[in-house]
Design brief:
It is built from 20 helices and 23 strands. The strands form 6 sheets. Strands 11-10-12-13-15-14-21 form a 7-stranded mixed beta sheet, sandwiched between helices. Strand 6, helix 3 and strand 7 form a beta-alpha-beta unit. The chain is α/β, with parallel strands linked by helices and 657 residues long. Helix 11 packs parallel to helix 12 and helix 17 packs across helix 20. The C terminus is likely disordered.
Length: 657
């Protein structure tokens, strides 16, 4: 049958079901095919923390949201245009996020009384469509027996009903692939490879996928197919990449560019574990991974590797940083290169292990005893995790210091198209190992009146004049034997010192070394198209996307706002203070209760206004645009209209940021 094809500029789809329904795999395959097709995209996986939450309950719902478009986009989208719900709990948990007019494709098979009760439904919402109290009024509902059709389609392979029903996610993927013109070859090849050792399961999944596609093609239930053209992107080779994968590649690149072998000492923890998994595959690049028995052992291994002349790295999340605090202080005292990766999650304590948050900034700044300054670097998008990792390694090696890299769960699990960089464009990082003694000690008069000749010694705390970094001497280098440890060092010679004046000097010197890092940072890029904005929105980390999308919406409505985003949080760039002083109002959106706001207020005496949510989810661009609009109205003495009639959907605006 002939079907209408409708052109769209972007779509937000959310796949939702029980945590055993394969929604993450379904969303990932749809994302991969959209990336191959050439769309710009951003994803938001969302899943329970429990290994197996109670089946059919709202806490057990797992979802995967993908926003794909024919133009540049910045977020996974505020609200889905399409919800694929595999059971009542998935429908109930996600219905409140849908705008009126959204499409709902729902699997009718599991709408039994037992499952409806688990989800908190008194009546079956699919049986009250069009009635006065219809909870689905205003939505385009497509009730389809996905499970039943899947079981029927794969019965020739002799699977049990339970095993046959598991392929329903592939039926749904096939249907959505038809609806939005996604390529199918990649998914078919993926399924053939993934289940190669179990032919019946392989063939059943392939059949379910093809049947779902054919169902869309032939049924009258779906009369429209949608087309989203490829996005225009800069020339280059692209791949879809998650933040954790990009970060792992960045660590490898940093090792290659510095010529240093990498040792990762790590204890598995959500959401950082994938970095350990990925790095374990790359021994050919000089990477050694050790899964430690606990967090403290992991960082101890990394510090030992750095002392031995390797690049020590440890990966964790907020609870692990708390345990590693004393060892990070040891790395500060010994002044050894070390990279500490914190993929932040909701806290405190175990908190929300599978949800995102950026509430460890103050912990990174001050979460150690004594004056123990540590540089902080934060990526802004999944792909940017690569560059941030290389930059963190540059700082650690050049300045002989532990560096904290603050990613978060949204970046770690989310994905976007990433332009693969040319290796020739990556910075060369010189470890500049000490190879000879560096201190001439004058001779002393002898008892017989003669003078002993001058001698040379190795002083492990004699500093580079530009960076204030101390020498890095590989153990075993003849003549460069030296003391190491956590007790205070004497300036220059490095022997243990309890002298009050020396301690004051060393504390100030270690701080001055971190401050010197700002000398190597490029000027901040301020996005202020008109040059006349009175409101500045400043953020860090993964808020880059929502802030950028919110600013686009405000500008599209005809108002002026500036944006600047921080990669380096300690030390701040030299020009940050001057930038802050240029604007009447400064808004600081964060997924915490105002940690960057506190730092900006304390250092620059600026009246930073916080926009703070800690929901375990990314900030919503539309809500943020409203907050920006209120500040613009206050700063400029005008009325700001950000209603849909005055602008367009947040991420459909293509003006360059």
């Amino acid at each position: 049958m002939s079907k209408q094809v409708k052109q769209l500029d972007r779509v937000i789809i959310r796949f939702a079901g029980d945590s055993g329904d394969g929604m993450q795999l379904t969303g990932d395959r749809f994302t991969q095919e959209s990336a191959v097709f050439g769309n710009d995209l951003v994803t938001l996986p969302n899943f329970p923390a429990e290994i197996r939450a109670p089946q059919g309950t709202i806490p057990g719902v797992s979802s995967f949201q993908v926003h794909f478009a024919d133009h540049d986009i910045l977020t996974a989208g505020d609200a889905p245009d399409v919800l694929v719900a595999m059971n009542p709990a998935a429908l109930k948990a996600n219905l409140g996020d849908l705008p009126k007019g959204a499409s709902i494709i729902v699997d009718t098979h599991d709408f039994t009384k037992r499952n409806l009760d688990k989800a908190g439904y008194n009546t079956n919402p699919l049986e009250t469509l069009g009635e006065v109290n219809d909870p689905l009024a205003g939505f385009a509902v497509h009730a389809v027996d996905l499970t039943g059709m899947t079981v029927e389609a794969v019965k020739e392979f002799g699977l049990s009903r339970k095993d046959a029903a598991r392929a329903k996610n592939m039926f749904a993927l096939g249907l959505l692939s038809w609806m939005y013109g996604r390529p199918t070859d990649g998914t078919e090849a993926f399924l053939a490879k993934r289940f190669a050792k179990v032919p019946d399961i392989r063939d059943a999944n392939l059949m379910a996928f093809k049947t779902g596609w054919n169902y869309g093609e032939t049924t009258e239930t779906f009369a429209v197919q949608y087309e989203i053209k490829p996005a225009t992107m800069a020339p280059g080779t692209y791949r879809n990449i998650t933040g954790n994968l990009a970060l792992a590649y960045g660590l490898i690149a940093g090792g290659v560019q510095s010529g240093l072998p990498i040792l990762l000492g790590s204890y598995p923890i959500t959401p950082a574990s994938d970095i350990l998994h990925e790095l374990s595959k790359h021994k050919s690049f000089g990477v050694t991974t050790l899964q430690a028995e606990d967090e403290i052992a992991g960082i101890g291994m990394a510090i030992g590797a750095s002392f031995g002349g390797a690049l020590g790295i440890t990966t964790t999340s907020g609870p692990g940083i708390a345990l590693k605090g004393e060892a990070i202080g040891l790395a500060v005292m010994t002044e050894l290169p070390l990279l500490v990766v914190n993929v932040q999650r909701g806290g405190p304590s175990t908190g929300l292990p599978t949800k995102t948050e950026q509430s460890d900034l103050l912990q990174a700044m001050y979460g150690r005893n004594g004056e123990a300054p540590v540089p902080i670097v934060a990526p802004q998008s999944p792909g940017d995790c690569f560059s941030a990792a290389v930059e963190a390694i540059r700082i650690a090696v050049t300045y002989r210091t532990p560096v904290m890299l603050l990613s978060d769960g949204y970046l770690a699990n989310g994905s976007e198209p990433w332009q693969i960089p040319d290796v020739a464009d990556l910075p060369v990082i010189d470890p500049a190992f000490a190879t000879e003694r560096n201190k001439t000690v004058p001779g002393k008069p002898a008892k017989d009146g003669t003078e002993t000749p001058d001698t040379t010694e190795f002083w492990p705390y004699l500093r580079d004049e530009e960076t204030l970094a101390r020498p890095w001497a590989i153990p075993g280098t003849p003549g460069l034997e030296h003391r190491i440890g956590g007790l205070e060092k004497g300036e220059g010679h490095g022997n243990i010192s309890y002298d009050p004046a020396n301690h004051d000097l060393m504390v100030r010197t270690r701080q001055a070394k971190i401050d010197r890092i700002a000398d190597s940072l490029p000027p901040l890029v301020v996005d202020d198209p008109s040059g006349e904005a009175k409101v500045l929105v400043i953020g860090w980390g993964s808020t880059y996307g929502p802030i950028g999308a919110g600013c686009r919406r405000v500008r599209k409505a005809g108002y002026r706002v500036a944006q600047v985003h921080l990669r380096h949080l300690n030390p701040f760039p030299h020009d940050l203070g001057d930038i802050l002083q240029r604007y009447d109002k400064v808004l600081v959106p964060e997924m915490n209760l105002g940690q960057l706001s506190l730092l900006l207020r304390g250092k620059y005496l600026v009246d930073a206004i916080g926009y703070n949510h800690v929901r375990g989810l990314p900030l919503k661009a539309a809500e943020l645009a409203e907050a920006i609009g209120h500040l613009v109205a206050e700063a400029e003495g005008i009325a700001v209209d950000l209603t849909p009639a005055a602008t367009t959907t947040v991420d459909t605006i293509t003006e360059e940021v």
